[in-house]
Design brief:
heterodimer, A: mainly beta, 12 strands, B: mainly beta, seven-stranded mixed sheet, four-stranded antiparallel sheet, globular
C-alpha cells in the first residue's frame, strides 16, 4: 500500500534562513511525487512535482524538492524563507501502476517563518 | 480560468438534515475528485470521476454519502442524513487528462450540530 510520512508536525525557521520540510514515501512501483501548500481557509495549491528525470525539481515561489530514490525521500527546500511562506505543507504520492489515480497525502507540516 | 469553484463555502446544519455540496471543475478537465479534510484523519479521497463516470468510490464513508456528476461542469456530494461526525472541510479537485497534478477548490467547511 502507498503511504506518505511527514515526520515533523511543525517546522520553525527564521526569515532569510534556508528551510527544509521533510517527506518520505512508500510505494510498490515508481512514484509520482507532489508538494502542495495550504494557506488558512484556502484550498491546496500545487507547488511542484516529480515524475522522472532530474532529481532536483524546481517549482513555484522559489521552492524546490529533491527526489532521493535510495532514501525514498522527497524533501521540500527553499534557500531563503519568507514570512509569507508560513502555511501548511502537504507531500503526496501517486502510484502509477495500472494508471492508478490514487493520490495519498501526508499528514501535513506546519511551517512558521519568524520575522 | 476561474479555477475550481465550490459552493457553499460554509455550511452549518443540524443533525439529520440533508446537505449538498457543489463543485464546478476547471473547464476541459476530465477528472474530478472529492476529498474530506479533518484534524484526525487528514486529507482523504472520497470518490473520483473520469468523464463524468464514478471510477472509485471506496473512500465514501457509508451509504449516507453519495456523489453525482451529471455533466462535465458540475458535481455534487450529498450527505443524507448528516451527523456531527461529518463536520469537516470538503474539497473538490480536478485535473486534465494529460496532467498528473490536481487543482483544488477553496473547500466547503461543513459544521453539523
Amino acid at each position: 500500500a502507498q503511504s506518505v510520512a511527514q515526520p515533523e508536525d511543525q517546522v520553525n525557521v527564521a526569515e532569510g534562513n534556508p528551510l527544509t520540510v521533510k517527506c518520505t514515501y512508500s510505494v510498490s512501483g515508481n512514484p509520482y511525487l507532489f508538494w502542495y501548500v495550504q494557506y488558512p481557509n484556502r484550498g491546496l495549491q500545487f507547488l511542484l512535482k516529480y515524475i522522472t528525470g532530474d532529481n532536483l525539481v524546481k517549482g513555484s515561489y522559489g521552492f524546490e524538492a529533491e527526489f532521493n530514490k535510495s532514501q525514498t525521500s522527497f524533501h521540500l527546500k527553499k534557500p531563503s524563507a519568507l514570512v509569507s511562506d508560513s502555511a501548511l505543507y502537504f507531500c503526496a504520492v501517486r502510484d502509477i501502476r495500472n494508471y492508478g489515480q490514487n493520490f495519498v497525502f501526508g499528514p501535513g507540516t506546519r511551517l512558521s517563518v519568524l520575522p | 480560468d476561474a479555477g475550481v469553484i465550490q459552493s457553499p463555502r460554509h455550511e452549518v446544519t443540524e443533525m439529520g438534515q440533508e446537505v449538498t455540496l457543489r463543485c464546478k471543475p476547471i473547464s476541459g478537465h476530465d477528472y474530478l475528485f472529492w476529498y474530506r479534510q479533518t484534524m484526525m484523519r487528514g486529507l482523504e479521497l472520497l470518490i473520483y470521476f473520469n468523464n463524468n463516470v464514478p471510477i472509485d468510490d471506496s473512500g465514501m464513508p457509508e451509504d449516507r454519502f453519495s456523489a453525482k456528476m451529471p455533466n462535465a461542469s458540475f458535481s455534487t456530494l450529498k450527505i443524507q442524513p448528516s451527523e456531527p461526525r461529518d463536520s469537516a472541510v470538503y474539497f473538490c479537485a480536478s485535473r486534465g487528462d494529460r496532467e498528473v497534478e490536481q487543482y483544488f477548490g477553496p473547500g466547503t467547511r461543513l459544521t453539523v450540530t
